[in-house]
Amino acid sequence: MAERRGIRANAAISLLLLFCLFPPPASAIEASNRYRSPRNPERKIRRSTELIVLHTTEAPARSSLNKLSDRGEAHYCVTEEGRIYRIVDRDREAFHAGRSMWRGKEDVDKFSIGIECVGHHDKPMGTVQIAAIRDLVAELKKMYGIPDERVVCHSHVAYGAPNKWHKHRHRGRKRCGMLFAMPSMRRALGLKSRPAYDADIRAGRLIVGDRYLNNVLYGRIDTMIGKTGGSRVPVRTPKPASGGWFSKLIGGKGRPPDPTPEATRAPGGKSAAAPPPKPAIRKNAAPGFAVTAARPRSAAELKALGYEVKGTISRQRTAMKIAGRAWNRSDTYYLIRGKVVSGDKVDTSKLWPGVSIWMRKK
Ligand SMILES: [Zn+2]
Question: 99 C-alpha vs ligand 1 centroid, how far in Å?
Answer without folding.
Answer: 11
